[in-house]
Amino acid sequence: MENEKYPTLQQLSSIEKMIIKEQVTEQIRTVYDPEIPVNIYELGLVYNVEVSDTGLVDVTMTLTSPACPAAQVIPVEVKQKTETVKGVSETNVNIVWEPRWETSMMSEEARLTLGM
Question: Which one, of 12, 28, 7, 14, lies nearest residue 84 by Cα?
Answer without folding.
Answer: 28
